[in-house]
Design goal:
Radius of gyration: 30 Å
Number of strands: 36
Number of helices: 21
């Protein structure tokens, strides 16, 4: 899979962003992958530079980028498609396409991935539309077209656009939310609910956001000139210290506060200093929801009224411009902050046997805006859901949720949260009750563990139900990790009473639950903790044949070296086999020749008998991004960054006919240093990366025909990540791509790969050797990278049944550490003796 999509014509911007790091132009997506003849040029304001275009050579698509730069639209990678650099291919770095064997690689909706992994390692919706289930294919096409247009094309759908613009105004600046409702003295009367308008200005009258077109009736414009509305002021308030002020659409409404207000609030909360006071609209919903989510935060809030002019003294005023009253266009960008905010204060999760299947009914006494399902039809829908729960062996508890208790009282937020945090599937008509999906598990471990949503919305067949058509929560909440599905109302629906096609409902349930059953069979993960070995032993022994004697190789950084060297693994895989050969307990010296290979920090090629390149290739000439080494090994060719990773393994060869000798369950192996998922520490004339060279070594030295006949290919225990996290600006996506590269090289030479997940660092982030230095490895990052690797492995059919994943992160959180990164010796000994030695013994009997 290529990690890019073509972005063709380049044009100058209408407004240049303030960040000097952004190349001042936009890239507009084109429908086909084409190369542009002519080198990249800087562009002037609104300038269009035409390029002669042709189909891209396949080798151009597959090569590594020559350079990377940021535009206002995206991170852009540049490739030279010809040796004289006369042809340039500009590719976005964020949008995946499916690789093809054909030379013509077109960009269509079917070639885009449905999901992507964000920086938290969470599976998020990638496309600008949900899974629509409708008997009419043209209706599906209309639905997708509406959402693509709303998203501005495919590229923005990935939800990683730039956050809203911030302005930090000096002391003496002011802020107000205007309300012109029922006023005859306003040029263009508006209210502060649907048509929101505010102003922020300095003491000398300069506007925070000069949008050049203060169209008061244009609902997309939310910031207006203060001098036109200052006469509305009913109260003047002075606040001291640093202040962050904001307002949002329909601040009195439960669902709109959650998806059109709080994502921006959570973002602001994360970027301003902790001492900052927040000025927020004084509404019942704001007060109640903030008190529930984060009670301690209320101490930092000043709740203001509409037309109250707030002036800041002895501090700054921070305001944000999201570019409109709705936040849906930001996708995951802002919702990610709200997910963290909620989970930090409410981290509860529940096991699978306590999950709920929630049906949302709008039959409660406090339901407004119609869209209630016909009562008998609703019973038929619930009956069909129950039939399919039995059909697909769904063991959840079915909950009919109205938002009210048995006496008709509105459920408290604590109970609504509890119900939806238990959710595995949510089904029902579009309405405020579905906004409770913000309480669902925000950090599922795999795509298959995401909550599933089936939402009923209006379409062209039932335009009368709600305007605009295809209006649902997907657009505003697609940044949540939700597997989202939708069906439309039937033509006999009205604005008050609705029906759906039961055939569409059945199709959706088949797709949701049938596919999930299939996907769950590819679960590669087991969890290990000291003393709890059975789950992983059972899981892995099903994937490797225990009746065959095997060799075991461990690859990784210093954590894997300590697992090998601080436990009995070094005795079992290196020392004991040498003793057995010497004492002729198994093979005779004349039949099996083994040499112990011990490495040092430098002269890495000598250990494996590799030739050296004529010229060492440094990072900046490798054509590779986000790779190691970047410390000691970067300035000392053929050396490692790691100062405590020393290879120690046996290299054996069979001589003559050994069929007359008893192998006695002879196993051997060892540890080979490989600290990154992709690096250039070991370079040869044939391969540039360590991973390619070591895979070639295993193939040619360890996997000779006679050795494979005797032992098969080795079982490879691998790990990477803790060193990769120290690479400057590396993203989760780049790390996962490097892991994919590494696994792709070793799958052919290993009989099975056991991926050992990252242990958690300690809670302290400060290095003992330097109080001013901070480790890049964090608990959330190690956890999210583990999730991302798991998702990638499970999604790639080429890895199916060939890789297993041992999750040790959770158990390492509370276990004693030897330092910030490493566990105590006791941890490694328990992992070796409790898990790996039983597996090795299975292959030596």
């Amino acid at each position: 899979m290529l990690g890019q999509v073509l972005l063709g014509t380049a044009i100058g911007p209408k407004a240049i962003l303030s960040s000097a790091s952004l190349v001042p132009f936009h890239i507009i997506p084109r429908p086909n992958l084409t190369c542009m003849r002519g080198p990249f040029q800087e562009m002037k304001l609104n300038e269009i530079i035409p390029y002669t275009q042709r189909d891209c050579p396949k080798q151009c698509l597959e090569q590594q980028p020559n350079s990377t730069f940021r535009s206002q639209s995206d991170v852009v990678q540049q490739r030279y498609c010809s040796s004289d650099k006369s042809e340039t291919l500009l590719l976005s770095s964020s949008t995946p396409i499916i690789n093809s064997n054909d030379d013509d690689l077109g960009l269509t909706s079917s070639s885009l991935a449905d999901d992507y992994i964000d920086q938290d390692g969470i599976c998020v919706n990638a496309l600008p539309y949900a899974n629509m289930h409708n008997k009419d294919p043209k209706e599906v096409e209309r639905y997708q077209a509406v959402h693509i247009e709303r998203a501005g094309g495919y590229a923005p759908s990935y939800g990683e656009r730039e956050p809203p613009k911030l302005r930090i105004l000096p002391p003496g600046s002011s802020f107000a939310l205007w309300n012109c409702e029922k006023r005859t003295d306003c040029d263009s009367p508006f209210n502060s609910r649907n048509n929101i308008k505010g102003s922020a200005w300095t003491s000398d009258g300069k506007e925070a956001f000069n949008e050049q077109n203060y169209a008061d009736l244009d609902r997309r414009v939310i910031w207006v000139q203060h001098d036109r509305y200052a006469f509305l002021g009913t109260k003047n308030t002075t606040l001291k210290g640093d202040i962050a002020a904001m307002f949002g659409f329909f601040a009195e409404n439960f669902s709109h506060v959650l998806h059109d207000n709080f994502p921006l609030l959570a973002y602001l909360k994360s970027v301003v200093p902790e001492h900052t006071t927040f000025a927020l609209p004084d509404t019942k919903r704001y007060r109640e929801l903030i008190t529930f989510i984060d009670p301690s935060f209320t101490d930092r809030i000043y709740f203001y009224q509409s037309n109250e002019i707030i002036t800041v003294e002895e501090g700054t005023l921070t305001v944000a411009n999201p570019g409109g009253r709705f936040l849906g266009s930001y996708g995951n960008t802002l919702l990610r902050y709200m997910r963290h905010w909620i989970f930090d204060n409410h981290p509860e999760t529940y096991p699978n046997d306590e999950k709920y299947l929630i049906f949302y009914s709008r039959s409660g006494p406090y339901t407004h805006h119609g869209r209630k399902l016909d009562s008998q039809h609703e019973k038929n829908i619930i009956a069909l859901i129950k039939v399919n729960m039995k059909k697909y062996h769904r063991n959840e508890t079915l909950i009919v949720f109205t938002g009210n208790d048995k006496e008709g009282h509105i459920l408290p937020y604590t109970e609504q949260f509890r119900i939806f945090r238990h959710a595995s599937t949510i089904i029902g008509p579009h309405g405020s009750g579905l906004a409770n999906i913000v309480w669902t598990n925000p950090f599922p471990k795999r795509c298959q563990e995401r909550v599933q949503m089936l939402e009923f919305i209006g379409g062209t067949e039932a335009k009368q139900v709600q305007k605009p058509i295809f209006n649902g929560y997907f657009w505003v909440l697609r940044g949540m990790p939700i597997d989202w599905h939708q069906i439309t109302y039937a033509s006999n629906s009205t604005e008050q009473l609705t029906f759906v096609h039961l055939n569409d409902l059945q199709q959706a349930l088949d797709n949701m639950w049938g596919s999930k059953e299939t996907n769950s069979s590819n679960n590669i993960t087991c969890k290990w903790s000291p003393g709890q070995n059975d789950e992983c032993i059972t899981h892995i022994s099903k994937l490797i044949d225990p009746s065959v004697q095997r060799r075991w190789l461990l690859f990784g950084d210093s954590t894997v070296f300590r697992l090998f060297n601080s436990s009995s693994l070094s005795e079992v895989l290196v020392h004991s086999p040498l003793g057995k050969i010497h004492d002729q307990q198994c093979y005779r010296d004349s039949q099996l020749e083994c040499h112990r290979k011990k490495g040092s920090r430098c002269k890495l090629n000598d250990l494996f008998g590799f030739p050296y390149r004529d010229n060492w290739v440094p990072h900046n000439k490798s054509g590779l991004n986000f790779i190691g080494p970047h410390k000691y090994g970067a300035s000392n060719p053929y050396c490692t960054d790691c100062s405590g990773c020393f290879s120690d393994f046996l290299q054996c060869a069979l001589k003559g006919n050994v069929s007359s000798y008893d192998s006695c369950g002879f196993v051997y192996g060892g540890y080979i240093h490989m600290e990154y998922a992709r690096d250039i520490e070991i370079q040869t004339p044939e391969f540039l990366t360590t991973q390619e060279n070591l895979a070639a070594y295993i193939s040619t030295v360890w996997n000779t025909r006679d050795l494979i006949q005797e032992w098969r290919r080795p079982v490879c225990v691998m790990s990477a990540g803790l060193h990769d996290m120290t690479i400057k600006n590396i993203s989760t996506k780049s790390y996962v791509q490097n892991v994919n590269f590494m696994l792709d090289k070793f799958i052919p030479v290993c009989d099975h790969i056991i991926w050992l997940g990252n242990t958690s660092p300690t809670a302290s982030k400060t290095s003992s050797s330097n109080e001013n230095s901070t480790y890049k490895q964090t608990i959330p990052l190690t956890k999210s990278w583990d999730r991302a690797v798991t998702e990638m492995i499970e999604s790639e059919t080429k890895f199916t049944h060939k890789i297993s994943f041992i999750d040790v992160h959770e158990s390492s959180l509370t276990y004693p550490h030897a330092d910030y990164i490493h566990m105590t010796r006791d941890w490694y000994e328990k992992l070796a003796s409790g898990l790996f030695l039983p597996l090795i013994r299975l292959s030596s009997t």
